[in-house]
Structures are given as structure tokens and as C-alpha cells.
Amino acid sequence: IGGLFMGAGDLTQQLYFNSAIKWKEVAAFTSLGLIFGPFGAIWYRYLDIWLPGTAALQIVKKLIIDELAWGPLFIATVFYVLPFVETLSHEKAVNELKSKFLTAWIGSAGFWLVFQSINFKFLPNKYRMSYMFAVSFIYDTALAVYKYQY
To answer: For residue 149, how many other CB atoms are within 10 A of its CB?
Structure first.
């Protein structure tokens, strides 16, 4: 499901900004979502095992770990691995990573800290990924805009 939301996010930004749809780009975003979606489910399940409960301190710990581990890995993959899927060179991938990583990570952290706080506080683990997929459509669209339009 994660792949579909990522692909839909990219498709949404393309429909707004482009005159023609670049299906290779949609496929690249979809592929990334298909890879990260299942790993995300595992990641958040173990995060709850390592840091059980919904007390404020537990939530803060989860947020910090999530943004220091998962966030950078995901952002780096978007800006370094996706260019290879799109058949760009190593040099272009490195340049994109260097120029966009920090801003994307800061934006990601700001976005996800709000939505993950709600997630960790109020939702049982079995509903977390469904919530995240729904919210990620907004995030994935914004990320695709930043990747391809700036």
C-alpha cells in the first residue's frame, strides 16, 4: 500500500506542475514505497516493543529515534537511490543528495513530529501504518514537489 501512496503523491505533483506525466518517475516513487512500506511496518512494531507505552517521555524517545534513524535513511534513499532508478549518474545523485538532503530532512522532521506525536499517543500499533499511509500521501506529494520542482 505504501508504494501506491508514494506513487500517487508523485503523480499528484506531476498533474499540478507538468504538462505530461513521466511514468518512469511515478514508477520510481512507487517502487520506493513498495520497499519502505513493509520495512516501516516492522520498524514501528519494534519501536513499540523497545519503547512501550504512550507516556510523554516514551513518545519523545520514539520521535527522536524515528527522526534520527528512519528519517535520514528515507531521505537519503529518495535523493541518492532514486536517481539511479531514473538512470541518472552517480555524480548527479551525489549532487542532488548534497544539495537537498538537509532541507528535506528538516522539513520531514517538522512534518512527521506533529503527525507521529498523534500516532504514538492515540493509535494502537495495529492502526499505525494505515494512519501513516494516509498522512504520507501529503508528505510524499510535498517530497516529490521538492525533489522534482526545486
So the answer is: 11
**Closest to 143 in 3D by CA, of 111, 98, 118:** 111
| Nearest by Cα to 44 from 147, 141, 138, 135 | 135
User: Using CA atoms, how far apart are residues 117 and 115, in angstroms rounded to an integer?
Assistant: 5
Inter-residue contact 29 to 82 (CB < 8 Å): yes
The pTM (predicted TM-score) of the whole model is 0.90
Strand runs labelled E in the chain? none
For 81, residues 6+ apart whose C-beta sits below 8 A from its C-beta are 32, 93
C-alpha cell at 87: 538512470
Tens digit of each residue's pLDDT (9 = 90 or more) over 99-145: 999 999 999 999 999 999 999 999 988 898 889 989 999 999 999 99
List Cα–Cα distances, 100 to 4, 72, 150, in angstroms: 24, 12, 9
Measured in degrees and rounded to the nearest 5, phi and psi for residue 18 equal -110, 155
